């Protein structure tokens, strides 16, 4: 101790700092001289490699150097050095960095140095850290704070590892490209985010920030307040109170741990990990619950806004609908008027249309006649056209020279002149002469004019004159051609024209008729056009009216639709408002409550985080005291907002989840619910102290659908199974954990996960395993009070699942009701399940209402489906709510009836704890809840039925108490049976309100004070300790013993007479104490005077209180043991010296039909392990009996036996396993808990011993000898045997040789008598 506590305390790993080959060992440097020698050598090396630095290494400097060096050697270790200028902060940092193998990085200030320059320097630093992988100390002094904003960047580096947005995108991409391969190799994901996170983590791991600040002035104080490192969710007003409470909680847990150790002999260690876990849990829980409440508030606000919107729309719609109805009526009248006008105009249009159609028919007929006449005329005319065409071609054949030739004649040939004159006549010349002809022919376009002249305009007179000329001419075409080419052409032309004119004269009447008809046709056509014009006008008007009418109809329809929509919206709004009116009120209240809860989260999460971090190992009483009497009170005194009344369960779970846990096998009592919370919500993996295996069964059922893997540290392949579970995210359960936890799983317990979110790995043994975040680890031990090291308490959350009296009482009440009122209990269980489902449904329906309202788009009132859904949901919610109310009433009625059976359940719970407490006396006295429930069921069946409830309860409690007494005594050594009876009596009395705990503690301990009382002992015959006890008794219980000291002093002779009696406990107590004291208080009085008579007095006390049968343990009956046994529970014989149950067991086997090959024996020893397991497997399948003797010789193998028994789930009903063992501390608890334990030991006292001997002597033996003295001799022999065995208590006194006179001696002697 002196070596550990001596000054100085200097620990470090810098002894080998200058050697690159030797490993660094963190060790005690011993003293200043050793430290100075090491640092001087480092200093000299520094001066050789770096710039020279003069240092005086005095003692304080060595301490500072050691601390700074230790901080820098820690991964992500940062330091704040506070000292006035010139105190050596920078020099010591540089030397410590050199010793730690780190470079030093400092910024260099220049004129105009700003944040942008600082950021550039930080970029260079991070490239050195992340790309070059250099461990670097960033030395930052108060002189470097050119701008206060620099400290914000430093704060970011300390909290998150990097400055946000330090690198622009292009530079960031360059960093990512340089590191991508390395990141993938180290297990990071391929995404940019994963590689960037790898860079940040790598940089942060290589970075050590040392802030060197001066305490002069308020600058440092102000800066520390600006960057406190606290949770941003804790308001500044409550920050100091929260910090103080956190410290108080940590201290209080240490105090309660000491008290826990003193009262219950149970360990709990408070480690720094608990403290850090507390802070981390508080921060996470505060953020999680705040986000949850914000989301809830948002949903409620949206829902309320929608309802408010519907209310406003309802008012607005009523006004709009009234206005709309007026407009709709006006539009209807206007449409009617327009419709009448359209009808009138339509009639006129129809008349016009008929007229037009008639006219069109008339025109069509005329057109047909014209076509016929015109066709006839044109057909006649067509006959003349070829000749006319030939004439034209003849003219075309002439050219100007031919005409000039004729014109040049002074006196032309007669034929030529006649032809020319004919042309003059045809052209209407009045002067018919050669001169006129020449003039005509001198025209520029003479030939063209002939071809284009109007032949139809030649009059008949002209035709007659021309014909006359031609008749007189008497010249043929050939002759004319010989005379003149031009003449012949014009002759041909004239003859053709004459032929045409003759034809035209003949068809002229027809043409005139056609012209007349066409004129009439055109007239009719004009009339038709006029009619059609009028019709078109009317139709346009009709079309315009139609469009107008259609528009009016559409407008009216639109108004009608709007009115109908408004009606629908009114109905929908009314449904919403009336249907959700209760929700509106409730949501408003809930919203307000949530806002208040959000404020109160500050204190609620503080208590809840402390609960999750600290209370797991404590019993319910300690938890209740710490949480509600210490922590809650402290939060209230510090005025931190807190819910009233505060319940841990209300914040960390809900009724739906608790009900689900119940259906999975977790008891519904408060402690079990708390344990469920700790197991499910704790930040560390759960280490369950679970002697009754309730946690084990719950976890198995809870995780059965998640591919739960179960193993133990004794399984050779547990690491492989664990690896698979970690890799694929399966839950993993270590069962049967003892006090040693294999360190190979330390990394798993501590969740030492490396890598980014894309790929996380965890080191398991000597290999890295991919880590799935869904992985869960549970550890479970059957030990009722394991002694774990503090490291286990730091790595895992130790949870005490030991059943409580109240919890067990509720479980046993269910068992009683299942037996007494099975239908009622089934109804209750169904009701609980239904209530759970309905509460879950009600919550889901409420969430559904809010979700539907929140997600609705557009006008909510138009969404018919939404309104119907809301209405249906509301209807269902109302129905469910009514069911819940009915269930609550029914539950109250059922609970009233159940509570009437509670006294029997309470007695059962008390008796179970009496049994389990015997394990404190001897480790072999282990009892499981499952085996106790078998005794409980047996007692219910054995107890006498009665129609009167009180009598029935009395029968149950009487039978149960005696059954448990017999069951317990069967497995107890004789020396412990009276203790068992006394403990049972006291616990039952205390449950009835008698024998207070204070009286019991005095009875057990007496006066433990080391100080003597001031009052002197009045009499010599009384022992000194006895007088001290008398004084203390009077002080503790003045009501009954206040005058005891005076009474003893004043009536010393009376007390001495009573004191001197051989059996004072059976005599009357002096003075008033005989009448005024209870039976137990008389024990207290007797204890003060005659401690030696307490054993006998306790026997009398039990006899008076419980009955004589509770001080007469039952005689061991092998037939009764067989009746109590089951195929799944082994029978363990706990041997005492000289006892051997093999003979009796063979007799039992013969009587039960299991003789010969059906009963297998095996004496355990080295090499028998496999044989035993093979025999066990055969016996379990074939229904044989197997006896394994002396199992204490193979303690380690018993673990294998326990596993093998667990695997036998469906043994043959006739199978029984009998095990004999000496009492040893390492016997597997699992076997002991599930077994029926039998102690084979002679009973205490002559009477009980003789009774035990006679129980083994059969009637056939007694009557086998006809001699009349034989039975008397057997009695004498039994009496002698009992005396000899009782003498063993006194050791060798009176005996030459220590010898265990056993049953074999008795039966051998009996044979001799015969």
Automatic annotation (TrEMBL):
Ranges for domain Dynein heavy chain AAA lid: 1270-1309
Subcellular locations according to the entry: Cytoplasm, Cytoskeleton, Cilium axoneme
Residue intervals of the Dynein heavy chain ATP-binding dynein motor region domain: 660-880
Gene3D superfamilies in alphabetical order: 1.10.8.1220, 1.20.920.20, 1.20.920.30, 6.10.140.1060, P-loop containing nucleotide triphosphate hydrolases, Region D6 of dynein motor
Domain Dynein heavy chain AAA module D4: 53-228, 234-285
Residue ranges that the Swiss-Prot or TrEMBL entry lists as coiled coil: 304-380, 514-597
Domain Dynein heavy chain coiled coil stalk intervals: 299-632
Gene Ontology, cellular component aspect: axoneme; dynein complex; microtubule; motile cilium
Protein name stated in the entry: Dynein heavy chain 10, axonemal
Protein's organism: Liparis tanakae (Tanaka's snailfish)
């Amino acid at each position: 101790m002196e070596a550990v506590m001596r000054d100085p305390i200097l620990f470090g790993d810098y002894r080998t700092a200058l050697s690159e080959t030797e490993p660094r060992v963190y060790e005690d440097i011993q003293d200043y001289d050793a430290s100075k020698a090491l640092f001087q050598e480092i200093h000299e090396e520094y001066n050789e490699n770096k710039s020279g630095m003069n240092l005086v290494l005095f003692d304080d400097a060595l301490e500072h150097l050691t601390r700074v060096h230790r901080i820098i050697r820690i991964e992500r270790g940062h330091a704040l050095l506070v000292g006035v200028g010139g105190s050596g902060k920078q020099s010591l940092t540089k030397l410590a960095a050199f010793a730690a193998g780190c470079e030093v990085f400092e910024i260099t200030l220049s004129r105009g140095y700003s944040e942008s320059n600082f950021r550039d320097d930080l970029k260079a630093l991070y490239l050195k850290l992340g790309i070059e992988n250099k461990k670097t100390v960033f030395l930052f002094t108060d002189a470097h704070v050119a701008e206060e904003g620099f400290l914000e960047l430093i704060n970011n580096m300390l909290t998150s590892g990097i400055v946000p947005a330090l690198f622009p995108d292009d530079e960031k991409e360059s960093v990512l490209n340089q590191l991508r391969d390395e990141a993938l190799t180290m297990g990071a994901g391929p995404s940019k985010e994963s590689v960037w996170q790898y860079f940040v983590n790598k940089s942060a791991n290589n970075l050590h920030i040392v802030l060197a600040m001066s305490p002069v002035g308020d600058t440092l104080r102000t800066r520390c307040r600006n960057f406190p490192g606290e949770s941003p969710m804790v308001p500044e007003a409550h920050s100091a109170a929260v910090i103080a409470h956190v410290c108080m909680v940590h201290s209080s847990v240490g105090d309660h741990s000491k008290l826990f150790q003193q009262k219950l002999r149970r360990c709990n260690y408070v480690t720094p990990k608990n403290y850090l876990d507390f802070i981390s849990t508080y921060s996470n829980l505060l953020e999680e619950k705040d986000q949850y409440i914000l989301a809830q508030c948002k949903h409620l606000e949206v829902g309320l806004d929608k309802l408010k919107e519907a209310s406003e729309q309802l008012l607005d719609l009523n006004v709009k609908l009234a206005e709309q109805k007026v407009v709709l009526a006006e539009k209807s009248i206007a449409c009617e008027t327009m419709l009448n006008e359209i009808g009138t105009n339509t009639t006129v249009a129809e008349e016009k249309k008929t007229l037009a159609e008639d006219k069109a028919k008339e025109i069509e007929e005329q057109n047909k006649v014209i076509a016929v006449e015109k066709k006839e005329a044109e057909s006649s005319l067509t006959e003349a056209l070829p000749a006319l065409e030939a004439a034209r071609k003849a003219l075309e054949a002439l050219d100007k020279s031919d005409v000039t030739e004729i014109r040049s004649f002074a006196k032309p040939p007669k034929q030529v002149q006649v032809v020319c004159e004919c042309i003059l006549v045809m052209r209407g010349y009045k002067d018919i002469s050669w001169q006129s002809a020449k003039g005509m022919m001198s025209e520029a376009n003479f030939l063209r004019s002939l071809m284009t002249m109007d032949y139809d305009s030649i009059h008949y007179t002209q035709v007659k004159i021309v014909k006359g000329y031609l008749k007189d001419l008497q010249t043929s075409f050939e002759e004319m051609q010989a005379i003149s080419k031009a003449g012949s052409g014009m002759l041909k032309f004239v003859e053709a024209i004459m032929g045409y004119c003759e034809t035209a004269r003949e068809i002229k009447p027809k043409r005139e008729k056609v012209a007349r008809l066409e004129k009439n046709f055109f007239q009719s056509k004009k009339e038709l056009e006029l009619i059609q014009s009028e019709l078109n006008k009317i139709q346009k008007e009709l079309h315009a009216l139609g469009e107008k009418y259609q528009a009016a109809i559409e407008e009216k329809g639109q108004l009608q639709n709007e009115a109908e929509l408004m009606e629908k919206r009114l109905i929908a709004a009314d449904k919403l408002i009336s249907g959700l009116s209760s929700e509106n009120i409730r949501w408003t209240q809930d919203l307000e409550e949530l806002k208040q809860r959000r404020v109160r989260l500050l204190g609620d999460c503080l208590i809840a985080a402390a609960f999750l971090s600290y209370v797991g190992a404590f019993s319910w009483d300690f938890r209740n005291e710490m949480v509600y009497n210490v922590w809650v009170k402290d939060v209230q005194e510090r005025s931190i907002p807190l819910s009233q009344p505060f319940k841990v369960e209300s914040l960390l779970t809900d009724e739906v989840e608790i009900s689900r846990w119940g259906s999975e096998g977790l008891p519904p009592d408060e402690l079990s619910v708390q344990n469920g919370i700790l197991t499910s919500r704790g930040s560390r993996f759960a280490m369950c102290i679970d002697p009754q295996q309730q946690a084990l069964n719950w976890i198995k059922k809870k995780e059965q659908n998640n591919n739960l893997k179960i193993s133990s540290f004794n399984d050779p392949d547990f690491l492989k199974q664990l690896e698979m579970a970690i890799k694929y995210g399966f839950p993993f359960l270590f069962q049967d954990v003892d006090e040693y936890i294999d360190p190979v799983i330390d990394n798993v317990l501590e969740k030492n996960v490396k890598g980014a979110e894309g790929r996380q790995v965890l080191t398991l043994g000597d290999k890295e395993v991919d880590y799935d975040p869904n992985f869960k680890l549970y550890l479970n031990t059957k030990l009722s009070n394991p002694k774990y090291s503090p490291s286990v308490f730091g790595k895992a959350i130790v949870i005490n699942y030991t059943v409580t009296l109240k919890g067990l009482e509720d479980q046993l009440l269910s068992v009683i009701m299942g037996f007494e009122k099975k239908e009622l209990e089934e109804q209750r269980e169904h009701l609980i399940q239904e209530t759970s489902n309905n509460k879950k449904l009600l919550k889901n329906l409420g969430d559904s209402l809010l979700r539907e309202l929140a997600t609705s788009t557009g006008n909510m009132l138009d969404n018919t489906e939404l309104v119907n859904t809301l209405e249906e949901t509301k209807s269902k919610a109302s129905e469910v709510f009514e069911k819940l109310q009915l269930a609550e009433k029914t539950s109250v009625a059922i609970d009233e009836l159940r509570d009437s059976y509670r006294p029997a359940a309470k007695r059962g719970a008390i008796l179970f704890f009496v049994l389990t407490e015997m394990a404190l006396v001897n480790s072999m006295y282990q009892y499981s809840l499952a085996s106790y429930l078998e005794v409980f069921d047996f007692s219910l069946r054995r107890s006498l039925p009665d129609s009167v409830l009180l009598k029935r309860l009395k029968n149950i409690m009487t039978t149960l108490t005696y059954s448990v007494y017999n069951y317990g005594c069967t497995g107890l050594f004789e020396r412990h049976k009276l203790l068992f009876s006394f403990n049972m009596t006291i616990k039952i009395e205390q449950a009835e309100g008698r024998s207070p705990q204070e009286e019991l503690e005095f009875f057990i301990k007496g006066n433990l004070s080391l100080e003597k009382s001031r009052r002197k002992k009045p009499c010599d015959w009384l022992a000194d300790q006895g007088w001290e006890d008398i004084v203390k008794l009077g002080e503790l219980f003045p009501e009954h013993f206040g005058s005891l000291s005076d009474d003893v002093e004043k009536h010393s002779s009376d007390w001495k007479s009573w004191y001197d009696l051989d059996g004072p406990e059976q005599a009357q107590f002096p003075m008033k104490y005989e009448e005024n004291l209870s039976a137990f208080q008389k024990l207290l009085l007797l204890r003060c005077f005659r401690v030696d008579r307490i054993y006998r007095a306790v026997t009398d006390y039990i006899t008076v209180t419980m009955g004589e049968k509770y001080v007469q343990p039952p005689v061991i009956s092998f037939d009764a043991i067989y009746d109590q046994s089951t195929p799944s529970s082994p029978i363990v014989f706990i041997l005492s010296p000289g006892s051997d149950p093999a003979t009796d067991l063979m007799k039992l086997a013969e009587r039960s039909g299991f003789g010969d090959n059906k009963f297998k024996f095996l004496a355990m020893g080295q090499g028998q392990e496999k044989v035993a397991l093979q025999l066990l497997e055969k016996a379990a399948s074939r229904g044989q009996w197997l006896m394994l003797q002396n199992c204490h010789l193979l303690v380690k193998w018993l673990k294998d036996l326990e596993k093998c028994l667990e695997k036998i789930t469906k043994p043959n009903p006739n199978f029984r396993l009998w095990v004999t063992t000496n009492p040893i501390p390492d016997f597997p608890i699992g076997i002991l808990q599930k077994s029926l334990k039998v102690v084979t030991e002679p009973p205490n006292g002559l009477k009980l011993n003789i009774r035990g001997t006679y129980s083994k002597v059969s009637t056939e033996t007694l009557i086998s000898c006809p001699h009349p003295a034989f039975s008397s001799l057997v009695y004498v022999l039994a009496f002698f045997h009992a005396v000899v065995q009782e003498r063993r208590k006194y050791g060798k006194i009176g005996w030459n040789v220590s010898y265990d006179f056993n049953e074999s001696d008795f039966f051998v002697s009996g044979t001799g008598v015969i």
